[in-house]
Each structure stands twice: as structure tokens, then as C-alpha cells.
Amino acid sequence: MPDRRVAVITGANRGMGLETARQLLAGGYRVALSGRDAHAVERARRSLGDLAEHAISQRLDVTDPASIVEAHRLIQGRWGPVDVLVNNAAILLGENDDVLSIAADSFRETFETNVFGVIETCRVFVPGMAARRYGRVVNVSSGAGQLSSMSTYAPAYSMSKTALNALTRILAERYRRDGVLVNAVDPGWVRTDMGGSSAPRSVEQGVETIVWLATLPDDGPTGGFFHDRRAIAW
């Protein structure tokens, strides 16, 4: 890189978001760690040790469009244009509930964060990427959102990730000619607060493909769904 590219990660105060920040920083990027709890995000930034020199913490609530606009303004004012957006923020409600027993409000809350929040964040960050003809958008999805293997697990979450995959395809096609590569990733069942301590994959394993997609060359893939760097069925 001629200079340090700038990456923004949502939901970066712990788990995969924080590890993504760590790996991008180690790869020479400037990274804005963001989340809705400003204090938690700043604690996460400080936990990065020497790597924190090239990181900032920024409050960004994906369900609050005004906070997204403000975060974009502050990050760009500090470092200039944003090159990479990792949409990692997500919630999991009603994991073990039957699809028809989940309250409508739980479906709405899930989609507000996992789908509409991604749309609003992309709405603010992606046009600038297209104008400069360079950008990488990584949507952290899940195997639970694969139609090809859909089960009864976590209905609201699974449906939201299917919608996120559809958004990925549409965004990729819209910005294909503008130098913006948009992909989704299934990190697998990872040992995080959401995945639990019994999950078979480490955070480092889950994040590896996220970082790969965030740092793709100009001729890299777009509009794909990846697990362990391999394209998988939607």
C-alpha cells in the first residue's frame, strides 16, 4: 500500500470485530473500531497494545442513522476517505424459539441491526468509495442464512442473514464497475459471546476470511459468499 488504507469495523468492541481490527492493523491499515457503547470500544482499542497507535474508537450505532453520519464525518476528518467497511455488528434473539412463537418486535429488532443497519451504514460509506473507484465491503453473515441448508435454528437471525446475503449480491452488482468489491462471509461457529465457549473454531480462524476479503486486490471476487476463502452456495 502506498499509504495506510482506512478501515471501519462495526461491532468492534469484542470477538470477531476486535480480532478483525487486530489483524488489519497488523497488516498496515488504519482502523476505526466502532460500536454503540463508546466506552467499551475505547477499552477494546486500548487492549490492542502497540497496534492501537493506528486505531481510533468511534461511537457508531447501526440502528441510529445520525450516529453513522457523524462517525463518517469524524473518521474522514481524522484520516481521510474510508477504503474498507466491515459490517460485523449483529444480534441473536430467540435462538431456540419456534418461528411462530417469536414476538414480532424481536423480528423487527433483529432486522433493524442485522439488515437495515447494514443498509444505512453502506448508504453513508459506499458512495465515497465508488467516487474514488476503490472500496471493499465485507458483510459478516452466517451459515444459518444459507437457503441451501436452512433449518429451524434461530429463525429471526437466520432470516436476517439470508436478507443480508441478498443485499450483498445487489450491492456487488450495483457497484461492480466502480471498483467496490462487496462480499459476504460465513465465519463458521466461532468461540465468541454469541457462539459460546463450546464452538469448534477460534476467533482467529473465523476472522481470517474476513480479513482476506477486506484486503482483496482489484481483480478479486465480488458478490460472493465465502467460508475459509472458498466460495459456498447461498
CATH topology: Rossmann fold
SSE string: EHEHEHEHEHEHEE
CATH H-level superfamily title = NAD(P)-binding Rossmann-like Domain
Shape: globular
From the alpha carbons, calculate the radius of gyration and give it in angstroms.
16 Å
Number-wise, the strands total 8
Helical run tally: 6
Strand order of the largest sheet: 3-2-1-4-5-6-7-8
What is the top-level CATH class? Alpha Beta
Quick one: biggest sheet? Answer: 8 strands, mixed
- The total number of structural domains is 1
Question: Helices, strands, pairings?
Answer:
Layout: E1 6-9, H1 15-26, E2 30-35, H2 38-46, E3 55-59, H3 65-79, E4 84-87, H4 104-132, E5 135-140, H5 155-175, E6 180-185, H6 203-214, E7 225-227, E8 230-231
Protein architecture, described:
By secondary structure, the protein is of the alpha/beta class. Helices cover 42% and strands 15% of the residues. It has helices at residues 15-26, 38-46, 65-79, 104-132, 155-175, 203-214, and strands at 6-9, 30-35, 55-59, 84-87, 135-140, 180-185, 225-227, 230-231. An 8-stranded mixed beta sheet has the order 3-2-1-4-5-6-7-8, sandwiched between helices. The two termini are 32 Å apart. The model has no long low-confidence stretch (mean pLDDT 96).
